[in-house]
Amino acid sequence: MTEIASAPTPAHRPARRWDPVVKLTHWSVVIAVIANALFTEEGSGTHVWIGYALAAILVLRLLWGLIGPAEARFTAFPPSIGRALAHLRDIRSGRHVEHRSHNPLGALMVYAIWSCLGAVIASGIAMAGLPGQARNERSDTAVSASTEIERGEDADEGDEGGEEEGALGEIHEVAVNLLYLLIALHVAGVVFETRRSGREVVLAMLPGQR
Q1: 69 three-state secondary structure
Q2: Residue 84, domain member (yes or no)
Q3: What is the DSSP code (8-state) at residue 205?
Q4: Domain membership flag for residue 107
Q5: Which terminus of the chain, N or C, has fewer Cβ atoms within 10 Å?
Q6: 208 in Cβ contact with 20 (< 8 Å)
Q7: Which residues of 36-58 are buried (b: 16+ CB within 10 A; e: fewer)?
Q8: Residue 25 domain flag
Q9: Radius of gyration (C-alpha) of the chain in whole angstroms
Q10: What is the pLDDT of residues 76-106, one digit of tens each?
Q11: What is the rounded average pLDDT for all residues in the chain?
């Protein structure tokens, strides 16, 4: 990844390039997270299907990190604690280093958000099942288990299933809350970087912008 030390003048700021797939996946994740946080009921069909869509979006972005253009690939923003600490020193000293992709702190945040999204999606699918038949089978199993418990049969197995669902629910909730925290930190970082560097970081992610 090319880095250019320079004074914070517009003439020395190379255009930030984000391709359409990066923009699409970024804003799709934003919309999906907001939709499930504010407009759907947890566990509802809409909530679950948005989760499936979020899984597909994340897979697409990770695949694009392997085959996409240079700025979108993982090699353009590898996670590195050392580089992140060096970037903090640059901020403290007022030194500006241009990055064609995410800066080192931003890179760590991206990987943290992706990991948290993965935990949210995995725990959600573990509770809801895969689309279609798998979800129906889980519902049938739950009904059968409830019937057996009502009859006094296999009560221990029913308790174990309830404990498993409860543990998955707790993991899902913790992962979601952590995701909200990471998103808040990400937004704060974008605002700070925009003010520090003078680059319109958000505008670069909008359609038609570079």
Answers
A1: coil
A2: yes
A3: T
A4: yes
A5: C
A6: no
A7: beeebeeeeeebbebbbbbbebb
A8: yes
A9: 22
A10: 999 999 999 999 999 999 888 888 789 999 9
A11: 83
